[in-house]
Amino acid sequence: MTRRTRERQFAATTVIVLLTTPVVAGQFAAENAAMRVLDTYMTALNDGDPKSVCRSFHYPYVQFAAGMVRTYETLASCQTARETARDGRSDPHRSGWDRRTVVQAYPETVHVTVISSRFNEADQRVAQLDALFIITRVNGRWGIRGYSQLDH
């Protein structure tokens, strides 16, 4: 193969990559948006900010955890419930993602399985949670619509 032939093949390959790159980036737009929502949620959780946690949800929001089903119909009902739940309870020092895996993705809905850990002030793991987040786009805004935690 001559140098000129290699250069033409390289140029053709470069054109193909450049033409398909926007399609690939668009293909993962929903997944990327879902990960940003989860990052915002975790930051609010670690900041101990129930209002910001609730702002990361869409309503009605449904949560399956600890053998219970909770439904928050509005932002206000979520904030009241989360602030009340904090009274007299010792929360972990911080939480973090161990793994996040998109298991289904469509332009308006993404399902993400996660494993997250909670740590005490000595940075020792005190809990590890296995869960599924349902993240949806409503009126152009991405938010968490539902959460299901596996009880161990």
Brief characterization of the structure:
It is built from four helices and six strands. With 152 residues, it is α+β, with helices and mostly antiparallel strands. The model is unreliable at 15-23 (pLDDT under 50).
Question: What do you see in this structure?
Answer:
Helix content is 41%, strand content 40%. By secondary structure, the chain is an alpha+beta fold. It has a six-stranded mixed beta sheet.
Mean pLDDT: 85
The helix count comes to 4
Distance between the termini: 61 Å
Give start-end ranges of low-pLDDT stretches: 15-23
What topology emerges from the helices and strands here?
Elements: H1 3-27, H2 29-47, H3 50-55, E1 57-65, E2 68-72, H4 75-86, E3 94-105, E4 109-119, E5 125-138, E6 141-150
Parallel strand pairs: 1-6
Antiparallel strand pairs: 1-2, 3-4, 4-5, 5-6
Features of this protein?
single chain, 152 residues, alpha+beta, six-stranded mixed sheet, 4 helices, 41% helix, 40% strand, globular
